[in-house]
Design goal:
By secondary structure, the chain is of the alpha/beta class. It has eleven helices and ten strands. The protein has a five-stranded mixed sheet, with helices on both faces. It has a five-stranded mixed sheet with strand order 7-6-8-5-9, sandwiched between helices. It starts with a helix and ends with a helix.
């Protein structure tokens, strides 16, 4: 059979089409995946309230973290869907690390332990670590020494919230203390007030907020800020989606102007919300 020039051209054209189809298929396989799968962004947030960051489950969308969550979802062109099943901050991290949520947004402190299972954004708030102590108990322990002298060698009872970053920090920061874990901050404050707990460990914002809510606490308690210890707040991202992690950082840089909130700014917002 003779092979004409037309036959060769047709054969070549067919080979070209097949080659183009294969190349398109390869490109489709190698193309970047969408930042968020489907039409929703699954966001883990604790069930309890932490004003002015987020309200309790079912009590609206007000707060720093709620605004952040809605802003990220809007820029991705998807709907935010909140999972408020976590009873602790660590529970929120577990939802992300297990793939049940895409992001954890809820006054989430960065810790090395959590960093083993999730990816963190850059911080959007930076707080100091702090203590609140029962005045009488602290005076008894100090025995005339300035409290600042005995803090690092503190040997009394130290309260922390179970599942919080401070439950992780406490054994290292206060190696001689007797660590007592509580289910909630309210229970800790009750113990400080009635003297059954010597001291509690949390960020300085929550301690200052307590004094705003109840000025009478200054009679029975004293607050101490650890100026050399910081608590950085960031967004947690599922570890198998680096594109989403990069997008959250980009959002914080461009949409929020690289703003990093400090305690005074957050307290001011809290006071404003309390008056509303």
């Amino acid at each position: 059979m003779s092979v004409t020039r037309r036959t060769l051209l047709m054969a070549g054209s067919g080979g070209l089409l097949i080659s183009q189809a294969q190349a398109a298929s390869t490109q489709a396989q190698d193309a970047p995946k969408p930042v968020a799968g489907g039409d929703v962004l699954r966001i883990a947030m604790p069930a309890f309230a932490s004003n002015p960051f987020f309200p309790a489950d079912g009590l609206g969308d007000n707060g720093i973290d709620m605004e952040l969550a809605h802003g990220i979802a809007a820029q991705l062109g998807v709907e935010p869907v909140f999972d408020r099943s976590a009873a602790t901050f660590d529970g929120m991290v577990n939802l992300v690390s297990s793939g049940q949520a895409d992001l954890a947004i809820g006054k989430l402190s960065r810790t090395l332990q959590r960093g083993r299972s999730i990816v963190y954004s850059r911080p959007y708030a930076m707080l100091r670590q702090g203590l609140i102590a029962n005045r009488l108990n602290l005076a008894r322990i100090a025995q005339g020494k300035p409290p600042e002298q005995i803090i690092r060698e503190f040997t009394g009872d130290l309260g922390v919230i179970e599942g919080s970053s401070f439950a992780t920090y406490a054994p290292t920061t206060f190696p001689h203390a007797q660590i007592r874990r509580f289910a909630s901050w309210d229970l800790i404050i009750d113990a400080i007030r009635n003297g059954t707990l010597d001291m509690a460990y949390r960020d300085d914002f929550e301690i200052k907020k307590l004094m705003v809510d109840d000025p009478s606490m200054t009679v029975v308690a004293r607050s101490i800020t650890l100026t050399d210890k910081v608590d950085t707040i960031a967004v947690g991202v599922r570890p198998d989606n680096p594109h989403l992690a990069a997008f959250v950082d980009l959002y914080l840089d461009l949409a929020r102007g690289q703003q990093v909130l400090n305690t005074d700014e957050i307290i001011a917002r809290y006071r404003q919300g309390s008056k509303a």
